[in-house]
Amino acid sequence: MNWDWQVVDDFMPRFWDGVLVTLQALAIGTLIAFALGLVWAMAQRSTLMWVRWPVTAVTEFIRNTPLLVQLFFLFYVVPNFGPSMSPLTTGIIGLGLHYSTYTAEVYRAGIDGVPVGQWEAATALSLSKGRTWRAVILPQAIRRVVPPLGNYVVAMLKDSPMIATIGAFDMLGEAQAFSNETFTTEALTVVGVAFIVIAYPASLLIRALERRLVR
Fold first, then answer.
1. Which H, E and C letters describe 137-167, residue by residue?
2. How far is 145 from 43, CA to CA, in rounded Å?
3. Which part of the chain is the ABC transmembrane type-1 domain (predicted)?
4. Confidence band, pLDDT 50/70/90 cuts, at residue 35
């Protein structure tokens, strides 16, 4: 197969549009996953069964359901009962919600890893429950979970092409559409290289961060 640079040049405007969509989905989806995951983790430690059990059931259901099914549900079913959302908004919410159930487990492991003595010390100092979480437990727990949370960012990047199935064309979605229109493969190759260029340095950064935090 001969490589056609003119095809690549024609594809580049759409490629950058796809990059923007991918980065938006990744950045906002990550914020949702990290914030909501912490909420799930803390709710699962609640002493109130009416809080703990429903949250556990919801997170288990989401974690054990394919992301693609969840995206279809959010985009095609939810609007029948409420306001409709754009494909990109739906994709961002879907990614964030799906990965929040995984980050919840990471947070839970980090919280469980805080020595019991830290809880006892906070009690001895008569710290309120809220201050115990803010000043003692969460700072230690989050330090432990930063590297595994970073791994889920990379995983979310690799799953982001799924949002193209509901019309939010990320890099891969744009490449597939362009390839179908022009009967070429250069666009798909460019996007494949782009994912490597983004994901591999991110993986190296996560490893370096992990080594630094475990010192």
1. HHHHHHHHHHHHHHHHHHHHHHHHHHHHHHC
2. 18
3. 15-206
4. very high
* Token pair of 12 as six digits: 């580049």
| 132 contacts: CB under 8 Å, gap ≥ 6 | 119, 122, 123
d(CA 97, CA 52) in angstroms, rounded, equals 18
Percent of the chain whose predicted confidence (pLDDT) is above 90: 59
**Which DSSP symbol is given to 128?**
-
Count of CA atoms in the C-beta half-sphere (13 A) of 39: 13
CB neighbour burial string for 102-119, b if at least 16 within 10 angstroms, e if fewer: bbbbbbbebbeebeeeee
**Closest Cα to residue 156, out of 99, 89, 107?**
99
Is pTM, for the whole model, over 0.85? Answer: yes
Residue 214: the pLDDT is 58
pLDDT digits over 126-154, tens only?
A: 778 788 888 888 888 888 888 888 889 99
Question: DSSP characters for 67-80?
Answer: HHHHHHIIIIIGGG
Residue 126: which of 136, 114, 111, 139 has the closest Cα? 136
